[in-house]
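Thread: quick sanity check before group meeting

JM: Hey all, I'm pulling together slides for Thursday and realized we never actually wrote out the predicted structure for the chain we discussed last week. Dropping the sequence here so it's in one place. If anyone has concerns about the input, flag it before I start.
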Amino acid sequence: MDNSNLPLNDIYAPEMRIYVATDCIIFGFDNGILKLLVFERRVEPFKGTLSLIGSFVKPDEAANEAARRVLKEITGLENIFMEELKTYSNIDRDPGARCISIAHYALIRIDDYDKELVAKHDAIWYEVDKLPNLVLDHDLMIEDALNRLRRKARFYPIGFELLPKKFTIPQFQNLYEAIFQKTLDTRNFRKKLMSLKLLIPLNEKDKSGSKKGAFLYKFDYTKYKRLEQKGFNFSLFKN
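JM (edit): ok, ran it. Output follows.
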């Protein structure tokens, strides 16, 4: 249908109003476990049930700006890894109103967020593989976000966004095992990781796991960015 000759008031009629929202899938990594931040829904429909953290997009902001606003309001964090995931627009996805959601997923260091803010919003960390059912189509969003995270982690070093800035190789292996839900051969994993020559060894040890401890490393983002411009892939697995 061609609406080009209709008056603007007819094209943008009130009955055509559709809400736009953003929902945030916020991942954290804690003691070898991949976790997701959810909260108790405070509004109808489904008040009191568990939900992803989200908001309507304001008239003066883009969807990604709304997602970053939500993240800051809930966790107090800025300038962290966040990426648009997908648009969810099924007609009956929200019984409260016709609403389209533009979902984003984020990776945060679980020790960095503002714990008082999170508690204030009744937000809770759940193990990803022990999540109860969430409202609306949020379970689908989580599934899509996990699949995206796995695809990205195969070729890009986004896993470091979930680790402390100083980490051990066993911690990094535990993270990949949590993301991909499989056990990795320690010797081969370490050999492949070290062959990329993107870790900066530190003269420090983490002794939380044993008296002997494990050496700490930092990721060399500067070197990686130079290599990335030449087409380098951060791949720890066979294609």
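AS: nice. The beta strands are 19-30, 33-40, 50-51, 53-56, 81-88, 99-107, 123-127, 199-206, 214-219. The mean pLDDT is 90.
JM: adding both to the slides.
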